[in-house]
Specification:
GO terms for molecular function: serine-type endopeptidase activity. The protein is mostly beta strands. The protein is built from three helices and 13 strands. The chain has a six-stranded antiparallel β-barrel. The protein has a six-stranded antiparallel barrel with strand order 2-3-4-7-6-5. The chain binds 2-acetamido-2-deoxy-beta-D-glucopyranose.
Length: about 260
């Protein structure tokens, strides 16, 4: 019965979003991060900028439509030239099979983004072309408007950055379990206090088993009961005292608070 339910759910969203061709390996191992199954997060992109005739990875992001990428506002600097790499697993391998480099048409940074308050840390990148979806390039689902996930809900952060304090910088895409910390807990005074707004979501931060932020701008991937993966958060900021700091989980922009903005 359960098998049939799951299969139906998978079929229900397979054609649109949030179902990878190569399922992620969600092991019970939760210390730090681990290398992802290649192409199991096919909506993960690498945002790259040009400097000294070379392209450098700067942030993660999420493909949410065939020509739109969601990332963090703090990833965008107005005087840089960007491009987006899709379908990547190892950033050091050029011309990786199934990967694609696309130019940027326009970047929309939330107009009320505040660096000082870290609020509205969200930006949309319109790609110069519609990309062809494939086994290695797919779109993530958006969460339902204003939806929340319960405390402790298991989600996964993915990125090419350090997955724990002073950890190695990864060439291969990393993933780390991040359990949701609800707003009441995260905004209490011994956690993040008033720094954390309702437009944000905290995940991780028990100081023991939590992974750290992947790359800024990248997704907090949460699998809903229907089997589809949604980009529930965008990596925004973490603790200056280190990624595994007790009661200082990584703070994400809560995508469900920005559905109207995204659709606009
Ligand atoms: C930005 O803030 C202003 C003033 O609070 C508000 O009226 C406006 O709706 C906000 N814009 C967005 C896109 O949220």
């Amino acid at each position: 019965m359960l098998g049939i339910t799951v299969l139906t759910a998978l079929l229900a969203c397979a054609s649109s979003c949030g179902v990878p061709s190569f399922p992620p390996s969600l092991s019970a191992r939760v210390v730090g991060g681990e290398t992802a199954q290649p192409h199991s997060w096919p909506w993960q992109i690498s945002l790259q900028y040009l400097e000294n005739n070379r392209w450098w990875h700067t942030c993660g992001g999420t493909l949410i439509a065939s020509n739109f990428v969601l990332t963090a506002a703090h990833c965008i600097s107005s005087n840089q030239i960007y491009r987006v790499a899709l379908g990547k697993h190892n950033l050091e391998v050029e011309d990786e099979e199934g990967s694609l480099i696309v130019d940027v048409d326009t970047i929309y940074v939330h107009k009320n983004w505040s660096y000082d308050l870290a609020i509205n840390d969200i930006a949309l990148i319109k790609l110069a072309e519609h990309v062809e979806l494939s086994d290695t390039i797919q779109v993530a689902c958006l969460p339902e408007k204003d939806s929340l996930l319960p405390n402790d809900y298991p989600c996964y952060v993915t990125g090419w950055g350090r997955l724990w304090t002073n950890g190695p910088i990864a060439d291969e895409l990393q993933q780390g379990l991040q359990r949701v910390v609800d707003h009441d807990t995260c905004s209490s005074s011994d956690w993040w206090g008033t720094t954390v707004q309702k437009t944000m979501v905290c995940a991780g931060g028990d100081g023991v088993i939590s992974a750290c932020s992947g790359d800024s701008g990248g997704p907090l991937n949460c699998q809903l009961e229907n089997g589809c993966w949604v980009v529930f958060g965008i990596v925004s900021f973490g603790s200056p005292w280190g990624c595994n700091t007790f009661k200082k989980p990584v703070v994400y922009t809560r995508v469900s608070a920005y559905i109207d903005w995204i659709n606009e």
